[in-house]
UniProtKB/TrEMBL annotation:
Name of the protein described by the UniProt record: ABC transporter ATP-binding protein
GO cellular component terms, semicolon-separated: plasma membrane
Cellular compartment(s): Cell inner membrane
Source organism superkingdom: Bacteria
The UniProt record lists the keyword Repeat: no
Keyword vocabulary terms for this entry: ATP-binding, Cell inner membrane, Cell membrane, Membrane, Nucleotide-binding, Transmembrane, Transmembrane helix, Transport
Entire protein: shown range: 314 to 638 of 649
Family: Belongs to the ABC transporter superfamily. Siderophore-Fe(3+) uptake transporter (SIUT) (TC 3.A.1.21) family.
Domain named ABC transporter: residues: 72-307
Membrane topology: Multi-pass membrane protein
Keyword Cell membrane: yes
GO function terms (MF aspect): ABC-type oligopeptide transporter activity; ATP binding; ATP hydrolysis activity
Length: 325
């Protein structure tokens, strides 16, 4: 029994390590907008500059199991567990035309975050293709993919460096004027200007500690500096007070203007403004359309709308009142 349980216990620890390694990858990736370590094909092609078209073609995905994450020294342990992870996406197919905003909604675990991560190659599809500007992301040069895609998540990460250095990850050649412009767009210039050391203020644990909403706005300033034509946004704003949330919202409005956007939507105003809403359930798109059409259809969206979007959203909620009658 010990021979059996010993390795299994070791294995579960391995899984934890692999998972936390992936989590920290995600954090760095958020700054660079691409996962470090992904490889470019020798014959990679550049995505045409300014491309705003995003396509998912019959995308299937399951997370790599521990034995597929190459850990040579742990091979024997890992070999004990060959159970594959279940498919997470099963035939996801949609197009976001240049300049459109598409909202992804669905119950927890439906596959929204997974879908968003396939665009910037945090993971690659198991089957099917994700194309940006007509180019399969796996065939694109990393530089062109990094230039085209910008990511803003709910958990924005800033390095323990100066504000200027944090911003320059987005555009190394940015001038101070560029940075101030981006900070203004992101609704955080006044705050930075009020700090004695301005752009040279060191941020983080042992430096100036931004609040969650301020960090998010610095992340948005980074996005504005980078000028990506496609933005992937997870708009959860759960930890923000309403004043901070309003500022983040204004910053995001600036950031999304004129850009293609794929948004994991949590706000009523987003789903109502979306050119198209995709309703994911258990890895499949089960409904698609505009807010009013989907509410009228009375399916899963209508239910999500009643339970998620019409509850706790601060702006005027005429639809919420209607549904409560
Ligand atoms: P939420 O609204 O709760 O954030 P979501 O719709 O974004 O959910 P995903 O995070 O994409 O859903 O997760 C889809 C499925 O994939 C879930 O069943 C989840 O448990 C699984 N999953 C997520 N990350 C991993 C991982 N690293 N390894 C294995 N399975 C994972």
């Amino acid at each position: 029994l010990t021979r059996l349980y010993g390795p299994l216990t070791a294995l579960s620890n391995v899984r934890v390590d692999v998972m936390s390694a992936l989590v920290s990858f995600d954090r760095v990736f958020e700054v660079l907008d691409l996962k470090p370590g992904i490889e470019e094909k020798p014959d990679a092609v550049a995505i045409p500059p300014g491309s705003g078209r995003l396509e998912f073609r019959d995308v299937h995905f399951r997370y790599p199991s521990a034995d597929e994450v190459s850990l040579a020294t742990l091979e024997d342990v890992v070999a004990l567990d060959r159970t594959e992870n279940a498919p997470v996406l099963r035939g996801v197919d949609f197009v976001v035309e240049p300049g459109q905003m598409v909202a992804l909604v669905g119950p927890s675990g439906a596959g929204k975050s997974t879908t968003s991560m396939l665009v910037s190659r945090v993971y690659d599809v198991t089957e099917g293709a994700v194309r940006v500007g007509g180019v399969d992301v796996r065939d694109a040069t990393l530089e062109s993919l990094r230039d085209t895609i910008g990511v803003v998540t709910q958990d924005s990460h800033l390095f323990h460096e100066t504000i200027a250095e944090n911003l320059r990850y987005a555009r190394p050649e940015a001038t101070e004027e560029d940075m101030w412009e981006a900070l203004r767009g992101a609704q955080v210039a006044e705050l930075v200007r009020s700090l004695p050391e301005g752009l040279d203020t060191v941020v983080g644990e042992r430096g100036y500690r931004f609040s969650g909403g301020e960090k998010q706005r610095i992340a948005i300033a980074r996005l504005l500096l980078k000028h990506p034509s496609i933005v992937i946004l997870d708009e959860a704003t759960a930890h923000l007070d309403s004043e901070s949330e309003a500022a983040v919202q204004r910053a995001l409005t600036v950031a999304l203007e004129g850009r293609t956007a794929l948004v994991i939507a949590h706000r009523l105003s987003t789903v109502r403004d979306a050119d198209q809403i995709l309703v994911l359930d258990d890895g499949r798109i089960v409904e698609r359309g505009k807010h009013s059409e989907l509410v009228a259809a009375g399916g899963l969206y209508a239910e999500l709308y009643r339970t998620q979007f019409a509850v706790g959203d601060s702006p005027a909620l005429p639809y919420a009142e209607e549904t409560e009658q």
